[in-house]
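Example (one chain per record):
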Amino acid sequence: MGFTLNPSAWTGLLALIIIEIVLGMDNIIFLTILVKKLHPKQRKKAKNIGLILSLFIRISFLSLISWSTSLTNPFYSNQYITLSVREVIFLTGGIFLSFVSLLELNDKLCNRHVKENKKKNYSNFWLTICQIVIMDSIFSLDSIITAIGIANNIIVMTLAIIISMCFMLYVLKSIKKFIHKYKAIVVLCLGFLLMIGMSLILEVLGFYIPKTYLYTAIGFSIFIEVFNQLSKYNFLLYQYTRPIRTRVLEKFLQIIKIEKQKTKHIKNEKKNKKYFSKEYSNFKKEEKYMIYSLLNLAIRSIKSMMTPRIEISWININKPINEIKKKLLDTPHSLFPICKGELDKIIGVVRAKELLFIIENNKNILNFVSKNKPIIILETLNPINLLKILKKSKGNIIIVINKFNIVQGLITPLDFLKAIAGDFPDADETPDIIKEKNSWLVKGSTDLHSLKQFLNIKNFFKVQTTHASIAGLLIETKGEIPSKGDIIKISSLNFKIIKVTNYTINLIRITKKNKKKKKNKTKRIK
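Predicted structure:
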């Protein structure tokens, strides 16, 4: 009854609860790190046992107050060092705490957890419990001595310890989630435990560090880490405002850069091979090209993938039968658009061998062609949606038109594959880009996307262009169709027109601009 009516007792109880919680946080952090090495099914059990043991040890120390206070009596003393049971426990605990913290820090900093093991080795349950008991004894001793110094009432001290332990049991799950979410906090906590362990060792050796200094250092570190987490959070918010394809592409290029550096490091230092897989090797040039093309597929235009209008081989149904037959036999294509008078009046799309069969059997060509209606799409269609249409087309060609129903080109599954994997020239066809000694010979119909990748230039064009081919860009830049021999400068490249026919640029030679080095003329002073 006297306890409940005594205001100083309640004040002491509140102060002790706060102090016990503060002093117990390092215990609970270390407990969380220790049980993480156990099997997931054993972790909850180990945590509960650890906290119950901590409560039991602290209450046991309280029940033996006279014995607890006698632990500070020295049993050995000389001019250099004074030892008591408390100092021995602190020295042993400090060494143990520092050693375990250093081992954990080494695992975290060296990324030991990234090694792939088919059977993960978990820590022994009872060995972990023994470590928890040792740490509980060390932390409890410090806590009990502090409690005795603040309050001299056994009921107040017992209540404070029980309430603080109940609170820690309540927040244990939250701390686990917090540490799992912010993994950098684990390294920070291990640093705190190492600092506490070193302070215990130094205290025994006579170099006492006030707790205020330790808590100030810990508080300042937490304060800085809060700023660090806020910075990461704001950076992620900024990243979410950017297109996801751009972010993925940047990450991919970053991985390639790191991979090159590590591969070079492995070659220089053979001893480091143990950290990497034997299959570790650089991405091939073709792989990088395809990944880059896939990530940029949705932002490309249909015009950059299609076979342009001027290169389409088509059959005019108004022509004599002999001319149609001759064109079918002379042109190395299996599918043809069949038109009436001009390309924009497409009747249907048929296979060459089927049309030849109809002609040989003197059947009605118009009726046959009309049954094979063409698949027509707008040039503004997204390439991802185009893929769905190509799958349903079953190998057929797809006609591309503009909003005025004028044919712009056609697309086949091979054209789509070229957009991803690069050009596949026929035996009688020259590649779109030919590498020469100090230049590149490029066809005018080459799409800008492929050219940019082939030349490996990030800032290829300073201005936005609606054209898909290099010829269209050069005409747009010049303002008119250039003549043979004209040189057009774009960015860091010179484009020399090699061949122009029918108001179209057929061939271009690309060279890089020469960087003139300025020589500093120095005058000799005699």
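Caption: Residues 211-240 form the longest helix (30 residues).
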